[in-house]
């Protein structure tokens, strides 16, 4: 069995702008932190820490 949990925070009116920008910007470069699922607590703390420098945090199984 597999489960995929994907979280996101943002505003609905930003989506059209982001979609247009995605054509011009390498979005993979926005991923600043990657964590394993067992490190979920640390990933969440990183997201909430304004000093972490996090732009996009990914949690992978």
Structural summary, described in words:
The protein has a two-stranded parallel ribbon. It contains 2 helices and 2 strands. The protein has a domain at 28-61. The chain is α+β, with helices and mostly antiparallel strands and 61 residues long. The chain has helices at residues 15-21, 40-48; strands at residues 31-36, 56-60.
Give a quick precis of the structure.
By secondary structure, this protein is of the alpha+beta class. It has helices spanning 15-21, 40-48; strands at residues 31-36, 56-60.
Name a few traits of the molecule:
61 residues; alpha+beta; two-stranded parallel ribbon; 2 helices; 2 strands; globular; Alcohol dehydrogenase-like C-terminal domain-containing protein
H/E element order = HEHE
Strand content: 15-25%
Question: Numbering strands along the chain, what is their spatial order in the largest sheet?
Answer: 1-2
What is the number of E strands?
2
> What is the radius of gyration computed over CA atoms, rounded to a whole number of angstroms?
13 Å
| Overall morphology | globular
Q: Helix count, per DSSP?
A: 2
The helix content, as a percent range, equals: 25-40%
Q: What is the average of the pLDDT values?
A: 85
Secondary-structure class: alpha+beta
Largest pleated sheet: 2 strands, parallel
Query: What's the N-to-C terminus distance?
Result: 13 Å
The low-pLDDT segments are none
Protein name: Alcohol dehydrogenase-like C-terminal domain-containing protein
